[in-house]
Amino acid sequence: EPSKTLQSIVNIRRDSVKLIRNETSPDQYSLEFLLDADAACTIRVVTSVREDGLVSILRDPTVRTWNFKSGLGQIFKVDDLVFIPGAMGPSMFKWGGSSEPVPLVIHVQVDGDYQNHSHTVLAVFEGTGDCFTVKVLKQKQVID
Question: 119: which residues sit within 8 A by CB, 6+ positions away?
Fold first, then answer.
């Protein structure tokens, strides 16, 4: 049976998604990951959103965006996107499936000719006390 190779235009490297502790405010963390993009793209980061409501949230014009040009191994790290995991409720440290809100969603949407291509990472926060990180639960690629 014939097959067709799919081309992923954007990719968040799963093993690179992490929290970086702020040196001057140790209770605050920023998000960092590596991005490979064969075209210009827009990144959105949202918290506490149900998976079935993700599309409408990501189309909301009030959701903050970051634009990246094409390139391999680009580092996403924005100092003013701050998380304080020690102040988060228990729901941010677990996810029970599609009926519950996803604690952290990273979405990359390709701009221009391939605007129907995207990559989404669903994650939870992990840790206790003074050491926190992010655990990627699943990834979704949309290639159209």
Answer: 8, 10, 11, 12, 107, 108, 139, 140, 141, 142
DSSP code, position 58 = H
The answer on pLDDT for 26 being more than 80 is: yes
pLDDT at residue 53 tops 80: no
Three-state DSSP at 50 gives strand
Give the pLDDT of residue 60: 82
Place of tokens 């998976």: 51
pLDDT at 143: 82
Q: How far apart are CA 35 and CA 62, in angstroms?
A: 23
Q: With contact defined as beta carbons under 8 Å apart, do 118 and 142 qualify?
A: yes
